[in-house]
Fold this sequence. Notes:
Layout: E1 5-10, H1 18-29, E2 35-40, H2 46-53, E3 57-62, E4 76-77, H3 79-84, E5 89-95, E6 98-104, H4 107-113, E7 123-127, H5 131-142, E8 146-151, E9 159-161, H6 162-167, H7 169-174, E10 177-180, E11 206-209, H8 218-225, E12 229-231, H9 234-248
Parallel strand pairs: 1-2, 1-3, 4-6, 7-8, 7-10, 8-9, 10-11, 11-12
Antiparallel strand pairs: 3-5, 5-6
Helix pairs in contact: 4-5, 4-9
The structure holds NADP nicotinamide-adenine-dinucleotide phosphate.
Amino acid sequence: MSKKLYGLIGFPLGHSRSADYFNQRFRSEGPEGSRYQLFPIPAVQGIVHLLEEHPDLAGLNVTIPYKEKIMPYLTALDDLAAQIGSVNVILIQSSGGLRRLKGFNTDAQAFIHTLPEPDRHRNALILGTGGAAKAVAYALNQTGIKSLFVSRHSSSPDTIGYDQLHRDPEIMAEHTLIVNATPSGMFPETDACPDIPYDRLDERYLLYDLVYNPDRTLFLQQGASKGAQIQSGEAMFVKQAELSFNLFTSIP
Ligand code: NAP
């Protein structure tokens, strides 16, 4: 009987529903004895101690803020994760006393699978520049939607500041899909939202929030109040977890 341990690394993890999702699936579908735990590690180096402490660890999900920072700790990368530059699933195999950690990305596929009516949009704004933002940009590029990152700090040819969104009405007019790939608005900071000019929104826009807790963030509430279509991160969460489960159970 296989008794494997799986889990989620990130920090903080108060928002996560992953343990409920995976433990329920392991209970109903097996492999028998498999279990899933939350591992809140305050620094990414904590992965080293975690592996030492848990020799039965067979797989991990990776969440905010480690989807990029985890990459130096891996021994191999799936092609898609390498192209995106972000990892949200790790498969761990042990042989001859060595642990091999291979990184995968299921966020990009989950995002595109849950994006309503992609044909309605030619240009997208991606709020944030972290691991999830990179997966969203990759997925949008695959469907022919051009994206522009919006960041609090950096500025480069494909990244603008929030101040520019307020100053330049043309940018808002051209980008009808706006994806929140920041933690702004996530529990417990539910009264926060990304600093975009909400008064310029109307029914042509789709606001997609990767945050899934709460289901209806302030970002989405503000979009809905202007007539914009809205999509919460819930469906993407379920899809990326489903794809992760398939990877976890693909190894005998
Ligand atoms: P990350 O790697 O830490 O990146 C987050 C980015 O957001 C940062 O690079 C930063 O960009 C920006 N940011 C951070 N704090 C902010 C704040 N207080 N206000 C505005 N911007 C802020 O995190 P991630 O892994 O990409 O995750 C981002 C969010 O997506 C999290 O809430 C996560 O739970 C969610 N997510 C959901 C799903 C799903 O399945 N629904 C999947 C993946 C991620 P700048 O410094 O450039 O501004």
